[in-house]
Specification:
Two copies of one chain form a homodimer. Chain A is an alpha/beta fold and 314 residues long. Chain A has two domains: 218 residues, Alpha-Beta Barrel (TIM Barrel); 68 residues, no CATH class. The first copy, chain A, is built from 14 helices and eleven strands. In chain A, the strands form two sheets. An eight-stranded parallel sheet of chain A has the order 1-9-8-6-5-4-3-2. Chain A has a three-stranded antiparallel sheet with strand order 7-11-10, with no helix packed on it. Chain A is globular. The interface between A and B is large, with 54 and 55 residues.
């Protein structure tokens, strides 16, 4: 059996990444109903909005689902209260120190998984006694690590130093890449970009179409002086880069950036002025499909690729 | 059978990357004698030095071997003359346009493989009728692409648009990562960093030790305004970055860089003032082993990982 399937009580070891402005209850429940684990991305939700999404998700599926909780917002405590009040049993924390909430959440019976991008935080996760770790490579969309370690290199590195189950993320969107991640030592995969462009994603239609339009080299790990984030190369990104090249300070950058750019791009569909977070794997996404079809395709490809590998005999 | 093993007449689909200052005749012949394909890295050799290495390699092995030929040096024509006079039958070209020499070399009966890092050059390779393509991801050491596409994303992308056999490079140094590359669609792998730290590598002992010392995040894709190259983070790299942040021009950077920095670091062992080209996978290299032991380990791991994958049944 598979350690992650057992831990999370899911059929397939496929986790849909919790993404701001993309993964509300529609996507999370669709993924969970299809045998994966759906995650509600709380990063773009006020506490009462999160509560509404959890309640709707519970109605839409009787399968396990979870909430992704980035630890970089001031309202984290409120989010945690909602999660506990609504009896959500799985939380993926990210973008912060796993020691802060893991013990508290686990005492309340919550399964805690933390997202990391380097060895240092993987070790912190083990000390914090998380139930599993997501290791996310440089190619992933959204927030990322300063080390720029890719999935191909990160997964074996992390596997070597931890004992809890390991979920690979970054560059994964097909059965072949799922199999590759497992060859590297992962027990499961987390897939973001491909689900961001799914039928049930709450992203704006313009953003979904732009994901399909993204080509080789169409994204870039940016904002390295603030917190590195992978974005589609658009007008907004070019302006940021000009500011960075002019040597603007961290504070000036933050001010000029303004607020709400991710909402503007991903939820309101302003492809010029908005911040469009997506992974490199978007270059391979060519259709907006229902989550269930995405998962079926991935499992079919996975099995085909596994059979193909058996032809290599040495 | 394996397309690359057939094309190159080798036992294992493992190619030792042709690396400046590391892969002379000792390493190339050791790899070829062990069932892989050894490549002499001509990029750091004058034409008469290349001739000497080819002649010694022919004496040291009766198995196929080749020469890596970066197309960015003024002496390329002289190198090609030496290669043809010495009857080398396999050439890996890189860092340039595959259309320039492929036709000429193939007319002379040479198998031509070209190294690329993006879709655009993969298509050029097909038009140039190369015999195979090496697709090299962002995590690879040395020269790299502007797109920063990682191996996990690049291999499936390239596989989709080409028909010739595909060799994956970047982030590969173990049997697990070799299997991952093949799950992604590669027919073979090219391994550099691990062989740079092998017993038969001609790199300076200091550089080999520094490869073992390299940790997670210890390398960086640098010199992006000249030609991107992945280097160990040392004093030399910090100085370069200061110059870049000051906004120095391309020409000023080139002048301040000076010449011979790679030789100084990799061949003469000056870890402060030298340029140390190595891949991210160096963080996982922990011993200086003979090439034959490296290959045996990789094949053993590959077979074990393949059996392990068969436990995943959906």
């Amino acid at each position: 059996m598979n350690k992650i399937s057992e831990l999370l009580k899911i059929k397939y070891p496929i986790i849909q990444g919790g993404m701001i402005w993309c993964s509300g209850w529609e996507l999370a429940s669709a993924v969970s109903n299809s045998g994966g684990l759906g995650l509600i991305g709380s990063g773009s939700m006020y506490p009462d909005v999160l509560r509404e999404h959890i309640q709707k998700c519970k109605k839409a599926t009787n399968k396990p689902f979870g909430v992704n909780l980035p630890l970089l917002y001031p309202q984290t405590d409120d989010h945690i209260n909602v999660i506990l009040e609504e009896c959500v049993k799985i939380v993926f924390t990210s973008a912060g120190n796993p020691k802060k909430y893991t013990g508290f959440l686990k005492e309340k019976g919550v399964i805690v998984v933390h997202v990391i991008a380097n060895e240092k935080f993987a070790l912190k996760c083990e000390e914090a006694r998380v139930d599993a770790i997501v290791a996310e490579g440089f190619e992933a969309g959204g927030h990322n690590g300063f080390e720029e370690t890719t999935t191909m290199v990160l997964i074996p590195q992390i596997k070597k130093i931890i004992s809890v189950p390991l979920i690979a993320a970054g560059g994964i969107g097909t059965g072949n890449s799922m199999l590759a991640a497992m060859a590297l030592g992962a027990d499961a995969v987390q897939i973001g970009s491909r689900f961001a462009a799914s039928l049930e994603s709450s992203a704006h239609e313009n953003f979904k179409q732009e994901i399909l339009n993204t080509k080789d080299g169409g994204t870039k790990l940016s904002l390295k002086r603030l917190v590195p984030v992978r974005l589609i190369r658009n007008k907004f990104l070019r302006e940021i880069e000009e500011l960075e090249q002019r040597g603007e300070s961290r504070e000036q950058l933050l001010e000029l950036l303004g607020r709400g750019r991710a909402k503007k791009g991903m939820f309101e569909g302003d492809l010029d002025e908005g911040e469009l977070e997506i992974g490199q794997v978007s270059a391979g996404v060519s259709a907006i499909l229902p989550a269930t079809q995405i998962i079926e395709e991935i499992i079919m490809e996975f099995n085909q690729a596994k059979n193909r590998l058996n032809n290599f005999q040495f």
